[in-house]
Design goal:
Layout lengths: L13 H14 L4 H5 L6 H4 L7 H11 L31 H31 L6 H28 L8 H18 L9 H30 L5 H30 L2 H4 L8 H23 L22 H9 L2 H14 L4 H13 L7 H29 L2 H17 L12 H17 L3 H17 L6 H15 L1 H13 L25 H10 L14 H6 L3 E5 L4 E5 L4
């Protein structure tokens, strides 16, 4: 869009389109991107007045972007099947069915990923696995390092893969089996001894889950970037992914656990958990079916230009270091990378610590910590879904990069505002404040799709610079490569902090009687009665833990209080 005057596409006269089309014909279909970047029109509409070369150019474009549909009532390709829902035909646009086909695996994968993020840490720490906080923190760091150094290999592999099934679909086929197996097995530490065995089990499968993420996300994101050359239609592609991803997170972290998961998995120690592995198996089947269907029905260009290293060189262009350097030399990409590096330091931190915040920081005077977690996630993601159209509208009214700047600024303020969340003493003000901040964070979170939308344009710019190379996966990987190292503190520091402040596992269920004691003096508050009950523990009684006595917990800074929302006695973590 020009700084002064009408949009570029409104000034494209018939002669100008013909001239542009002629230029495309002379230098190859690479230059088509220069036309389509400035237009929201379909491929067929842009070249409708391009003269005798129009049909040849459109056929060339159809070869580069085979998911486009060129049906038209007055053309050689008549609308059939679902295309009949568009009376005027698609005329070189991306049909809704193709967008949904591409985005369908996202639902199951995000449900698996965020169910693990929301529930697995507390399960391994509070239930029978009794995993070590130190090993969990170390595994988090190691997984990020392994993930960071395998990402470039997967990116160059999928960008340079030449097979009759395309560059992306073989990875969808592999992900259909590998990812569900990893996520389901990660919920089954009962196969090994508790303690060290379960801790190592967590570490191995946490690393494998990162590899599963890489195997699916990089080729799938690159597949999305090659669906259409139409500038504004790309925004629609990534907006659709954002909506489906949020739905996956809602069902994985809130709806399905709320309906299926009992206190056995969320608040009672040492009694195992059956519902979460079953949910993981269900979402794994949903993901596998969507991946297989995409691999079967999806279409890709069969031949793409290949990066070639110079003869006698110690490096090839597809090697990790040259590939990263080549992406960093792209100036628009460098600007996006800076914002993503800053954001990565605390982007996922709220989701990592939220299961512990609801019990430790908010307390359970007003709301059960498990329900508080689910309500917060649900409100957060519902507001995220509601505000996706608002972010899309802002992008269209201003520009993508201005909308992205607003998104990052508001996201920083939203994350910083969480320092105002305090322990709820029973008047529910602290809980309501936390829920309100979660809604605000969700509304801002709805703009996350803008970064991928901009990367799609960067890929088009790179195609012009490299003479026709399409390196979608390289850029999708590179935008996350350096930020992965910035995310290490958010992955590991919370668990080191839990160990430093002597995090205490929940009390045994049989030693959590109802609050209040009718035989005790009414002058004592419920919290004082609770404290007195556990402080009078006799030697070997084991009211608080098999490993620590109640007095040792008190010496560690833990308070024994009445959890009003649950109507039973519990503990308050070290308030320092």
């Amino acid at each position: 869009r020009s700084e002064a005057g009408p949009p570029v596409e409104s000034r494209l006269t018939g002669d100008a389109v013909a001239s542009l089309a002629s230029g495309v014909r002379r230098v190859g279909s690479t230059s088509l991107v220069a036309v389509m970047r400035t237009s929201s029109k379909s491929v067929g509409e842009v070249f409708a007045s391009a003269g005798p070369d129009a049909a040849a150019i459109c056929n060339d474009v159809a070869g580069q972007f085979p998911m486009l549909c060129f049906c038209a009532p007055d053309g050689p390709h008549k609308p059939r099947g679902l295309c009949r829902c568009s009376p005027d035909g698609h005329r070189g646009r991306l049909p809704l069915a193709s967008r949904l086909l591409w985005v369908s695996p996202v639902f199951g994968f995000f449900a698996l990923k965020y169910m693990k993020l929301g529930y697995m840490h507390k399960f391994y720490m509070d239930d029978y696995p009794k995993a070590s906080l130190g090993i969990i923190a170390f595994s988090s760091v190691l997984s990020v390092l392994v993930d960071a150094f395998t990402d470039p290999k997967i990116a160059t592999w999928t960008d340079n893969l030449r097979s009759k099934y395309g560059r992306r679909r073989p990875f969808m086929l592999a992900s259909a089996f590998f990812a569900p197996a990893v996520f389901v097995l990660s919920w089954m530490p009962a196969l090994v001894p508790a303690g060290l065995g379960a801790s190592l089990w967590y570490g191995v499968f946490h690393i494998l889950s990162k590899l599963a993420d890489t195997l699916f996300s990089i080729p799938h994101g690159a597949y999305g970037a090659q669906l259409t050359p139409i500038y504004r239609e790309k925004t629609l592609v990534w907006r659709t992914k954002e909506v489906v991803a949020n739905l996956g997170v809602i069902f994985g972290m809130a709806v399905a656990p709320f309906l299926v998961v009992s206190a056995q998995c969320t608040s009672t120690p040492d009694d195992g958990c059956l519902q979460l592995p079953l949910l993981a198996a269900f979402f794994g089947m949903v993901f596998a079916e969507a991946c297989l269907f995409l691999a079967w029905r999806g279409r890709e260009p069969l031949r793409e230009p290949t990066l070639k290293g110079s003869s006698g060189s110690a490096f090839k262009c597809e090697d990790t270091v040259p590939m990263l350097i080549s992406t960093f030399l792209n100036k628009p990409f460098r600007l996006l990378l800076v914002t993503d590096v800053v954001k990565a330091a605390g982007y996922d931190l709220p989701f990592v610590v939220l299961p512990f915040m609801t019990a430790w920081v908010w307390g359970e005077k007003c709301l059960d910590s498990g329900k508080a977690f689910q309500y917060t996630v649900l409100l957060n993601l519902v507001f995220s879904l509601l505000f996706v159209p608002a972010w899309s509208c802002l992008s269209a009214k201003t520009s993508k990069y201005r909308a992205h700047f607003v998104f990052n600024s508001l996201l920083a303020l939203s994350v910083a505002s969480m320092v105002f969340i305090t322990y709820d003493e029973g008047d529910c003000s602290g809980t309501y404040l936390a829920l309100a901040l979660g809604c605000i964070f969700g509304a801002i979170y709805g703009g996350t799709f803008l970064i991928n939308d901009l990367i799609s344009d960067v890929v088009d710019y790179d195609q012009l610079l490299t003479g026709g190379l399409r390196r979608e996966a390289s850029y999708m990987m590179a935008i996350d490569f350096v930020p992965k190292f910035m995310s290490i503190p958010g992955e590991s520091v919370p668990f080191l902090a839990l160990a430093y402040f002597k995090y205490a596992r929940p009390l045994k269920e049989q030693f959590r009687p109802r609050c209040g004691d009718p035989q005790a003096s009414s002058a004592l508050s419920p919290d004082a009665l609770c404290h007195a009950f556990y402080a009078n523990e006799t030697l070997g009684q084991g009211l608080c833990s098999d490993a620590l006595s109640c007095q040792q917990l008190l010496d560690n800074g833990v308070s024994l209080v009445c959890s009003t929302a649950m109507g039973e006695r519990g503990l308050k973590q070290n308030a320092s």
